[in-house]
Design a protein that fits this description.
This protein has 293 residues and is mainly beta. The protein is 8% helix and 30% strand. Strand 16 and strand 17 form a beta hairpin.
Length: 293
């Protein structure tokens, strides 16, 4: 079954995402892809298709789309109200949207980003092996606009990997695991300890590049006060500390190099949790030994 999806209202921001384009950091291109990869994988598994099948990532809900033909789809990620032509539909399980019907997502009750997977996936231009949209780099398809029509891929016979998932445990105060370093020595002992003892709050300065946190300033060790660090490679989850001492956690579309020292790195799976923080949300960090020890 093939068809189309047409945007009626994209909400604050909706982009086409898969699991990204790894391996291009040397030419300045981050992996990108879904900010919360686990939620896109889940939505696709509930449809019985490959984890990396392209879907829509929508921020703070408000998405409204119309399907040109009957289409099976699934919404996962930040839990929100789902409606088909105004009638309530299920979140976290496969649903069938009739041809010509409108699918609408409400504002998430918690979390920031919801994911709409469709049977067969979305067709979009491929760049460096991925259709993922990185708006800050003008890479991939631009964010969805009202009136945009996307073609759907050929859907395989429906054989879900699991039947239902209500959305997981959305903690009121999530904890993300970190590995300390590589520049822990640039900061004083008290600040290093505060990284895991303090309660941090996501600020309004957040997007797919990263999220700035508010909390006790992380201060430089005396030996590094006033010093600059040459640019060095950055990875997803890096916690950079700019001169004001308020840390920034880098996310999917992070720059591939940076000059602020990295006090720690959020473990890969937990960057999905950080990507779901909305302004005002708290988060704590828990340090674990590096995997190579």
């Amino acid at each position: 079954m093939t068809g189309t999806l047409t945007g009626i209202d994209p909400g604050p921001m909706t982009t086409v995402q898969d699991l990204g384009r790894p391996g291009h950091g040397a030419i300045g291109v981050p992996t990108g892809g879904a900010a919360d990869r686990a939620s896109l994988r889940l939505a696709n598994r509930l449809l019985g298709q490959a984890d990396a099948t392209p879907g829509l990532e929508t921020t703070l809900g408000g998405l409204r789309v119309r399907f040109g033909a009957a289409t099976r789809c699934c919404v996962a990620g930040a839990p929100c109200e789902v409606r088909i032509d105004g009638a309530a539909a299920a979140f976290g399980e496969a649903i069938l949207v009739p041809g010509g019907a409108e699918l609408a997502l409400g504002t998430p009750r918690s979390g920031l980003r919801s994911y709409l997977a469709v049977a067969g996936g979305l067709s979009a231009p491929v760049a460096l092996g991925s259709v993922a949209s990185s708006p800050s780099l003008a890479l991939g398809r631009p964010p969805l606009r009202a009136g945009d029509t996307l073609a759907l891929g050929e859907a395989a016979p429906y054989a879900p990997h699991l039947a239902h998932h209500p959305g997981g445990a959305w903690q009121a105060e999530p904890t993300a695991t970190i590995v300390r370093g590589p520049r822990t020595d640039w900061f004083d002992r008290e600040s290093s300890a505060a990284l895991t003892s303090a309660r941090w709050t996501a600020t309004g300065a957040l997007d797919r590049i990263g999220v700035r946190l508010d909390g006790p300033p992380i201060r430089r060790a005396t030996a590094y006060e006033g010093k600059e660090l040459p640019s060095e490679p950055m990875v997803r989850g890096s916690i950079q500390v700019p001169p004001d001492g308020q840390p920034v956690v880098l996310l999917a579309d992070h720059p591939t190099t940076g000059g602020y020292p990295v006090i720690a790195v959020v473990t890969d799976a937990d960057t999905d949790r950080v990507a779901q923080l909305r302004p005002g949300d708290p988060v704590r960090f828990r340090a674990v030994p590096p995997p190579w020890r």
